[in-house]
Queue: 2 jobs
Job 1
Amino acid sequence: MVTRQGDLSLAREVQQRSGVPILRCYFCQKCTAGCPVAYAMDVKPAQIVRLVQLGQKDAVLSSTAIWLCVGCETCGTRCPNQIRLAPMFDTLRYMALEGGYKPEPSVYALHRSFLESIRLWGRVHELSMLMAYKLRSRDLFSDLMMGVGLILKGKISFLPERIRGLAQVRTLYETGSSEVER
């Protein structure tokens, strides 16, 4: 490996916290080639892994890329070493918050709204999640007509449905070892 022994502390921490064997990466870049949001990232997925391997904590945690991962798992499907980047990006987001790095505001607002919807209902309720996101992001009217159209077509329901195992979902939120902010 190209890195010096002292540089591996970040990689080992991320690997331990996320359960993702990122030290296996040899930079084939298949994750980046398949990522549907790589075009919008300031640092591409394979580059994030490499920066973690090199111990470049500030570059990684200040990157907007860690906030743009949608968790689609295309990276893990394409990776010849079965490296799933979505859990690694989740870990990096928590590390960024713990370290006082400022998240991408609109992406963080969506992230929080999504997680809050799951905590409340056990699944995502699109209408309440979108309303919470609009309030957090302070972007109330940019796509209002599209939302009205979706509601009129019955694509977004007014009433949420709670799942049967809601208590178990809420327990996950309460016992999460890396939880930083709600």
Note: Residues 77 and 84 are 8 Å apart (CA to CA).
Job 2
Amino acid sequence: ASKQAPDRGSGMRGTTRKNWFGGALSGVWLLIVLVPIYWIIITSFKAQSDYFSTNPLALPTDPTLSNYQMVVESDFPRYFINSVIVTVGSIVPAVLISFLAAFAIVRGRGLVLKATNSLFLMGLAIPLQATIIPVYLIIIRLGLYDTLGAIILPSIAFAIPLSVLVLSNFIRDVPKELFESMRMDGASDWQTLWQLAFPLTRPALVTVTIYNGLGIWNGFLLPLILTQSPEKRL
């Protein structure tokens, strides 16, 4: 009787090797991330004298809420609401305009659309610092100085070029057969935009939303130059 060789492949597939090195690196990275968060939390409950006289990583011996009280009394809620208004008011129009422009550039034809794409690419080469004086003069002429709209409009303009570049490349990767099949089914360009391009480009939309949102939320130059009154601070 012939003996059958054992199936070594099935035995090897049943066992998995533990990646101890990767696990150790993940633990170190988790520690690096958590230590600053831990330090921020415990420091917020310390008085200024305790912070300089004790170990920065030690738990507060006499916890206090005076730091939070000072933040609330410094009109922090107003600044937070202003930041939310500026960020949302800038991101929603910027992402919507960028998505429509990217779809038109990818699916459209003509020299005008190609020139528009080149214009958006040129916008990536112009830093905000180089245009702050023209932006300031335009805002003054429009009568928007010292308003939240003075921050929202330039933020939209500077968020569009990169968003169009990312979204157009993502839409370009969508197979053309999908667009052609919808067109053969009688779908209009508007239906193709929202029923096909929009669902397939959601990862790119989320990416540009988060990226631009962080940039606008942490923005410093535009609020510094285009606003003056304390009520409009971010």
Note: The chain has a mean pLDDT of 86.
